[in-house]
Amino acid sequence: MTTGLLLLHAFPLDASMWQPQVGALSHVVPVVAPDFPGFGAGGGDPVEVLSMDLEADAAARALSEAGIDQALVCGLSMGGYAALAFWRRYRSRVAGLVLANTKSGGDDDAGKERRRALAARLLAEGNGFLVESPPPLLSAGAPEDLWASVRATIAAQPAAAIASASLGMAERPDSTPDLAGIDVPALVVTSTGDTLIPPEAT
After folding, report:
1. Residue 9 half-sphere exposure, CB side, CA atoms within 13 Å?
2. Backbone phi, then psi, for 163, in 5-degree steps?
3. Is the pLDDT of residue 194 over 90?
């Protein structure tokens, strides 16, 4: 049985965000960092609503294509939502979980409306406004060159893909009931510098 590392990316970025980790770890363990549908070079065409289950299915296909049976699944932010969906759908393939700067709960009604409004604006205007004013993906003291990289990565994503992911996050289920049943090693990572998902939510 081949065991590897599965890295699931954050919104509204693609799998290129994991390049430093892939470069550092791939000589130690097989590493797969797939693009979700519509994102990056490997995601294909956007779907109308990118559910967390679709993200999990894309990740499972990427593991199979790489010949990996089981993986330590690491999800950052939206990738954490996908990791929890992967656990529900493919638990026999999960050797462990890393849930980084993410949360188990679903959105409240106001949060769902914000995501739907963002999707509508993206489809109407394109992603330029999001490039100019990206979500607070980095801490307040992050260097400008890192912000430039984030903006460039967002700019490279089709507006329709970002919109579909926003809609998918709005519809994601509450994963909190699943937490007590996780029976593999799990690490939860959070940060006081995270303004999107603060430590108490994680």
Report:
1. 29
2. -60, -45
3. no
Closest CA to 5 of 33, 38, 24, 27: 33
17 secondary structure, DSSP code: G
Among candidates 1, 6, 3, 4, which has minimal Cα distance to 18?
Answer: 6
pTM of the model: 0.96
- In the chain, what is the greatest distance between 2 CA atoms, to the nearest angstrom? 47
- CA dist 66 and 26 (Å) reads 13
% helix, strand, coil for the chain, step of 5: 45, 15, 45
pLDDT at 139 over 90: no
Q: 152-183: per-residue pLDDT in tens? A: 999 999 999 999 999 999 999 999 999 999 99
Domain segments of the chain: what residues? Answer: 3-189
Is residue 14 over pLDDT 90? yes
In this structure, which CATH number among 3.40.50.1820, 3.10.20.30, 3.40.50.2000, 2.60.120.230 belongs to the domain 3-189? Answer: 3.40.50.1820
d(CA 126, CA 129): 8
